[in-house]
Amino acid sequence: MRNPRFLPNRILNSALLGLGLLGLPGLVRAQALAAGPAQLARTIMTIWPDSLEEVPGQPVKWNYGQGVALEGIKGLWERTGDQQYFNYIKKSIDFFVQPDGSIKKYRLGNYNIDEVKNGTLILFLYQQTHEPKYLKAATLLREQLKGHPRNPDGGFWHKQVYPRQMWLDGLYMGEPFYAQYAAITHETSAFDDVARQFILMEKHARDPKTGLLYHGYDDARQQGWADPKTGQSPNFWGRAMGWYAAGLVDALDYFPAQHPKRDSVVAILGRLAAAAQRYQDPKSGLWYQVLDKGNAQGNYLEASASCLLTYALAKGVRQGYLPASYLKTATKAYQGILQQFIETDAKGQVNLKGTVAVAGLGGKPYRDGSYGYYVQEPVRTNDIKGMGAFMLAGNEIELLSQQPNPGQAKRQKASPKATGPATKKGKINLGDAQLYYEEAGHGAPLVLLHGHSFDHRMWDPQLAELAQHYRVIRYDMRGYGRSSLPVEGQEFLHADDLHRLLQALHIPKAHLVGLSLGGFVAIDFMALHPESVLSVVSCSGSIYPRPGPEQPITAAEIARRRTEIAQLQARGLATFKEQWLASLLKSSGPEQASSEPLLRLMVQDWSMWQPLHVEPRVLLGQSLVPRLTAHPVRVPLLLLAGERESAARQHDNEVLQQLVPGAQTAVLPHAGHVANLDNPTAFTEAVLHFIALQPQL
Length: 697
What we know:
Helix content is 46%, strand content 9%. The chain has helices spanning 9-19, 26-34, 37-47, 64-80, 83-94, 119-129, 132-147, 168-185, 190-205, 238-252, 262-278, 303-318, 326-340, 371-376, 384-402, 460-467, 494-504, 517-528, 555-571, 573-586, 592-605, 624-630, 647-659, 675-678, 680-692, and strands spanning 165-167, 216-218, 342-344, 350-352, 355-356, 379-380, 424-429, 434-440, 445-449, 471-475, 510-515, 533-539, 637-642, 664-668.
């Protein structure tokens, strides 16, 4: 049976043809290009140049509507790297987050779960800038959740002023932040509680007949809108379903892959997606304000519900939470959104029509949850919640158009055919060499450095996951892969090549992740160019135990190398490669079944220039320790080794740790020399955790 998370290109392409990113009819395709997320972001930044107000002219509030719009703009920044988007997010959040970590206009004691939502943006800024005020502010919101009122079964109240009530809206407002905070701070026990909230909401609000979820649930059965037996509200509000769906896909991004409740949360998303698909308007591809009453008088197709459900379905497919069949549903919906809700006015400004201003339950004046109530609430153009939801949906659709195989980010084992989501490929001319590189993702730059006899493909298991958070560059070093071969007798350092590569790509600072040879190069670069380093993760490559470039190659060395080259040629290159591969696999132990295919492919493709020539001193080697002693550096450094790595390698890590203040060491379980292939999950998690704690800009 085919795993739906790994899909051939033809399935994705056929779905995207319906949208038109691969072949929309001319008029609609032009509309998609001219009126996408970037154009609506421009409208937002024009209407609200300084701060986002829910209602123009009224005092600005700490409000979830602002957060939804900023999430959409964050998605644009992650896709494009355009600094104006990051600056706008930071300016908007900094209006509220004070230098001491307090949040202007926020009161913890209100216990309003809507006010937790913007914590995801605070954590985003913390991860990008590492400014302490953001972590303090996020911790303040976490404190709210610790004391937030709950029902007897543990479900969060929507607000303190709405006792014993859970609303679908609240799962989007609280759980993605809760999961993100838990992931960053390693509060792993919190994921049980995050899962519990989604499970309880579905248990109490889902209608088994339609599969839809009622807007709210009163555990006390005291509200006028609540069914006296079930506690459920009487109708299925579209945007509430959209909030719940968006909360699921956003929280799942942070769930540990092996968490026992993760599959339960994914299953909830699957049931919700099936219901949403069932109630999608077949003509327009959109969803109604009241989902199951499409033909009732007064009902209408509503923008924010349509955008949020499109977002959840598209992201669910892209992340591998949903099967590919939902692509057709999502792309049809997005085409309907462009046709029904997007307009361009006489001044060229792109606007979003058709968003209901608000809907709730109870309160003053009392909202009874009836059908008549939902269809009488005012509808707005350029409502900030709808605009944010549109950008979320558009970003996901455009990401899908760039990702040939949805769900590839969830692959855990290396595959020779896994090339990752590279969006840019090219060669940098250094004058004396050309370096092949690939680039994917957006955010702080992160450079991946491969090992000896390998090439950029060794990072296939990590690329997709890392590119969700960073601008990832992987390249072939001189003499490997698609880069040019060295010239015997010509001196160069791999670290200098890396420096010139970063200059050519206009990258002033970067995180470096290297393994074996790549680890040596990363350490050399740290010693030579500490001002250009954000952090270094080096695995099985710290102190190269051979002479450095300050010691010229002697005639005796050249003669010895010529003898070794002749012996190698006599033995046969194929035999050498098999023996070399066997030595690599030996340290992998039981894990070699997962690492062997990609290792074998790279070794087979290796030019073998290095063992067949007198290679210059391309690493600092034994000059590294004296250099670091004379010129200490203060760079965040993590030294990794697989548990099956040689004792000598692990000892070198300990020596280097003493030379770099604050350096850390760690041993990866079930891994040998090529740890990123032996145990890709542990390797990737170690890298992400370490880099997340470092400054990003």
